[in-house]
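Notes from the 1:1 (GR / supervisor)

We went over the backlog. Supervisor wanted to see one worked example end to end before approving the batch request, so GR pasted a single chain during the call. The sequence is below; no edits were made to it. Supervisor asked that the structure be written out right there so they could see what the output format looks like.
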Amino acid sequence: MDKLVVVEGDPVNGKDTHKVTGSTTSSPPATYTGTADFVYSGSMSQAVSDLVRINGTPVALVTSRSTLPPAETLPPSGKHSGPQGSNFIPPAPAPQPLTLVITDAPLGVGTPNALAGSTLLTVDGVKVLLDGDPVDTCSGIGAPAGSRVSARGQSLVTCSE
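Structure output shown during the call:
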């Protein structure tokens, strides 16, 4: 099956889980400590190939990294900020969303999963990323492959795996 080759700027989307702390909705409020899921909407932006380009855009490799736009991590509206969490564990007592802060770091960086990359196409011996490859985003609990990269920056070059 043919797959498009991923280039710099291609989107990385999914979910990951982080440790959070804040206040509960109980009366009187108590400290909430647990985990929550967050939307990851980043792009391949770091350590792309300086050797191979497609239509002038650097190719992404298994050594490349994804990052989130800075606004995504800013509370209260950034999708990757404490108030935007979902699927809280423990679910009770319920947390008060506006008080939540993500406590693990680093926040926002994703690395291609060990299963990512072409088995045929390499650049200087490093596997090239392909459309749909899994990405381990910044999960604070070590959960792998919460996201996937989508080839959107080019429609010319495919790899048959």
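Supervisor's comment: The chain has a mean pLDDT of 93.
Batch request approved.
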